[in-house]
């Protein structure tokens, strides 16, 4: 009976991971990152990675992480108790089967494209209504279409606009906008287009992804989240 209980409970744990991963993806997180972070939070291992900032800096993802962390702590206690033969015959296996069935159904529902898309839209709308702009990651504030991007451009020796004013690089009719220039530890926000670009400058661009990549492919770095 104890082994059956453990087996069913492990199925429940897996279903919780799948559901949490799907919910994290609804908030805009990459599927691979979502699954890894869900496992990390539930097991309490590997969560202190750079990718964890994508969870911590997002209000909805933080709430999902709270549930996962608490469930993980509870699950560890349950599994240790089971292995230690503390389980008795009066554990209700049928109840566990019902719970796992419900979780399995929820996991399947979240994978339906139409439902996933509708839920994603509702989450984004709720985020915009309930949280201030300063609480949200760049993606939720500035990404209005799939082709929007915020990305860094580095001015190196080969960059054709080095030692030229920024206004010579960006054409007025293009869907490319400069948010700021990072020069060492000092961000430049004023008179951007009159600023002369120097070696090592990091220009934060916002606009059409395809156009930005077409013009500056060899000088782009990581995308901002």
UniProtKB/TrEMBL annotation:
Keywords assigned: Membrane, Transmembrane, Transmembrane helix
Coiled-coil segments: none
Regions that span the bilayer: 6-26, 67-87, 93-112
Stored InterPro entries: RCK_C_sf
SUPFAM superfamilies, sorted: TrkA C-terminal domain-like
The keyword Nucleotidyltransferase appears for this protein: no
Record flagged with keyword Disulfide bond: no
Protein's recorded name: RCK C-terminal domain-containing protein
Species the sequence originates in: Bacillus songklensis
